[in-house]
TrEMBL record:
<dbReference type="GO" id="GO:0005634">
    <property type="term" value="C:nucleus"/>
</dbReference>
<dbReference type="Pfam" id="PF00400">
    <property type="entry name" value="WD40"/>
</dbReference>
<dbReference type="InterPro" id="IPR036322">
    <property type="entry name" value="WD40_repeat_dom_sf"/>
</dbReference>
<feature type="compositionally biased region" description="Acidic residues">
    <location>
        <begin position="120"/>
        <end position="135"/>
    </location>
</feature>
<protein>
    <recommendedName>
        <fullName>WD repeat-containing protein 70</fullName>
    </recommendedName>
</protein>
<keyword id="KW-0853">WD repeat</keyword>
<dbReference type="InterPro" id="IPR020472">
    <property type="entry name" value="WD40_PAC1"/>
</dbReference>
<feature type="repeat" description="WD">
    <location>
        <begin position="355"/>
        <end position="380"/>
    </location>
</feature>
<comment type="similarity">
    <text>Belongs to the WD repeat GAD-1 family.</text>
</comment>
<feature type="compositionally biased region" description="Basic and acidic residues">
    <location>
        <begin position="136"/>
        <end position="146"/>
    </location>
</feature>
<dbReference type="InterPro" id="IPR015943">
    <property type="entry name" value="WD40/YVTN_repeat-like_dom_sf"/>
</dbReference>
<dbReference type="GO" id="GO:0035861">
    <property type="term" value="C:site of double-strand break"/>
</dbReference>
<feature type="repeat" description="WD">
    <location>
        <begin position="299"/>
        <end position="331"/>
    </location>
</feature>
<feature type="region of interest" description="Disordered">
    <location>
        <begin position="52"/>
        <end position="146"/>
    </location>
</feature>
<dbReference type="InterPro" id="IPR051858">
    <property type="entry name" value="WD_repeat_GAD-1"/>
</dbReference>
<dbReference type="InterPro" id="IPR001680">
    <property type="entry name" value="WD40_rpt"/>
</dbReference>
<keyword id="KW-0677">Repeat</keyword>
Length: 563
């Protein structure tokens, strides 16, 4: 009977899709119900209620704003309702202007006559001017301020700055290498150390490694040296055998060095070039022999002397400028044949004084002894991209370098004594137009260095000066650290007085030096008359009289009167 009732309920459920009476099914199946019934929501009603609420709220806000504006208008129109002293005329006029312009913020000062309506335009103009300054590389040259470091009286032929820009080294024809610490210097601008690492040889090049912990010193002898940050020797390259004809078979250079530099990526490797006609690479951990040898050759296959050398920015290429006017570039791993070779880069017989790669690694600048500056594209190395002449060069180490943004090229000019000022000349990299120049001093500009982190320019001159150009806003640290420190006061030595003790049998007293000297004079006179002699020691004076005869009383009286 019960099974027939359940079957009927299920049949009716399948037929209609739902049960007509939940209570009957629940009672038949033996439980009270199917659980809590789910809530149902009328979404259309909810959305309509929300819309009405928003409209009512907006209407209330509009009514409140209109009421407040009408109240403020009535307050401003009725002067009788003001409480307190009358408003000054200037302030009242200013309030009127503020009400008209609807300004927000504190009131303007009394004497202000400008219109804030133009402030936005001024800001826009300033922004455009700033953009123009960013596009104009000349505006980035830090030359508003300068300091002068006195290296000596002879030519500053080498400059080096560590990667962090904290320490500067300078070397010259006076054989000295001076260390300058920007953080430790004051306005006296004195070097904290000076030494002669290569004895009586002129300094040709100085450069810190990429880590800044050691420094390469290239001088007029055949052996380069590596010093630490404090000037102590770390390594000295071995000298080769000058009686061997093939320079590749010697362990080191056999003639005067001309230039040297560190590898830009490998901190233990550096390179030197010499009058023996070779360019050699060295390992800091192996001083007994060079690492590899590159031999420049002329068009006829003869030996030529490299006067300068450098690595590319990625360290994969080695470039050398030679006395025959050629520029030869090798792959660092292939030392036999050149990868790029320009036969007539500069006038034969002139010393190419500097080679410098751009920061993007595509361009090469060369400073020639023929008074020229040229730009080369290493992707098309047959002829220069740009060039300029008339830049006098009397030194075999005159520098050229790129600006940190790679848009300018900088070099120095040489002058004879009392014939003008040496200049630092700036050229646009693309157009190669002379865009700026700085009168440095009444001597030649030999070395120039533009540090990318400090944004400061270091210049070495022919009269023994090192000048540092900087801008208080555009530059960082460096010279800015020492110019703000006042000079230290000199310590004066204090005069010290010492008491002396005079001893004579029954006499023991203290006298000053003046009385002591006078006493000796009197005693000497009396003793000479009486034929006596006195004996003195370091710590005291003991008077002994022997064979004085009848003059002993006279001596005693002189001694007592003096003391």
């Amino acid at each position: 009977m019960e099974s027939n009732t359940v079957n009927k309920a299920l049949t009716s459920f399948t037929a209609t899709g739902k049960t007509s009476d939940d209570g009957d099914i629940a009672s038949v199946m033996g439980f009270s119900g199917f659980g809590k019934k789910a809530r149902t929501f009328d979404l259309d009603a909810i959305f309509e209620q929300t819309r009405r609420t928003a409209i009512e709220r907006s209407q209330r806000v509009i009514v409140q704003k209109s009421d407040s504006s009408s109240d403020s208008g009535s307050d401003s129109d009725s002067d009788s309702e003001l409480i307190g002293p009358p408003v000054p005329p200037q302030h009242a006029a200013q309030q009127g202007d503020d009400d008209d312009d609807e300004h927000v913020g504190p009131p303007l000062p009394p004497g202000y006559t400008g219109s804030t309506a133009h402030s936005d335009d001024d800001d826009d103009e300033e922004g455009e001017a700033q953009d123009d300054d960013d596009d104009n590389p000349v505006k980035k040259i830090p030359d508003t301020h300068e300091i002068t470091l006195q290296h000596g009286t002879k030519t500053v032929s080498a400059l080096g700055l560590d990667p962090s820009g904290a320490r500067l080294v300078s070397g010259g024809y006076d054989y000295d290498v001076r260390f300058w610490d920007f953080a430790g210097m004051d306005q006296a601008l004195q070097a904290f150390r000076s030494l002669q690492p290569c004895e009586c040889h002129q300094i040709k090049a100085l450069q810190y490694s990429i880590t800044g912990d050691v420094m390469l010193v290239v001088s007029g002898n055949a052996q380069a040296k590596v010093l630490d940050r404090d000037g102590f020797s770390v390594m000295e390259c071995v000298k080769g055998d000058q009686y061997i004809v093939d320079m590749a078979n010697t362990k080191g250079h056999t003639a005067m060095l001309n230039c040297g530099c560190w590898h830009p990526k490998i901190k233990e490797e550096f390179m030197t070039c010499s009058n023996d006609g070779t360019v050699r690479t060295w390992d800091l951990n192996s001083e007994k022999k060079h690492k590899s040898v590159f031999k420049p050759r002329s068009f006829q296959g003869k030996k030529v002397i490299p006067t300068c050398c450098t690595y590319s920015r990625d360290g994969k290429l080695i470039a050398a400028g030679c006395q025959d006017g050629t520029i030869q570039i090798w792959d660092r791993n292939l030392s036999v044949h050149t990868k790029f070779h320009c036969r007539q880069a500069h006038t034969p017989g002139s010393d190419t004084s500097c080679l410098s790669f751009s920061y993007d690694g595509t361009m090469l600048a060369s400073r020639g002894g023929d008074d020229t500056l040229k730009m080369w594209d290493i992707r098309n190395f047959r002829k220069p991209v740009n060039g300029v002449s008339g830049l006098t060069n009397y030194f075999s180490m005159t520098d050229c370098c790129f600006s940190p943004d790679d848009k300018l090229l900088v070099t120095g000019t040489s002058v004879k004594k009392d014939e003008g000022n040496g200049k630092l000349v700036f050229f646009d990299r693309i157009s190669f137009q002379r865009v700026y120049e700085i009168d440095v001093t009444n001597a030649s500009v030999v070395r120039c260095l533009w540090h990318p982190k400090l944004n400061q320019i270091m210049v070495g001159t022919g009269n023994g000066l090192v000048k540092v150009y900087y801008d208080p806003v555009k530059s960082h640290r460096g010279a800015k650290l020492c110019v703000v420190k006042s000079k230290r006061k000199e310590k004066h030595a204090e005069a010290l007085t010492q008491d002396y003790i005079i001893t004579r049998k029954f006499l023991h007293t203290q006298v000053c030096w003046k009385h002591f000297s006078e006493m000796l004079v009197h005693i000497g006179m009396a003793a000479s008359h009486s034929g006596c002699r006195f004996i003195s020691c370091t710590c005291s004076v003991e008077l002994r009289y022997e064979d004085c005869g009848g003059h002993l009383s006279a001596v005693n009286s002189h001694v007592q009167e003096t003391i």
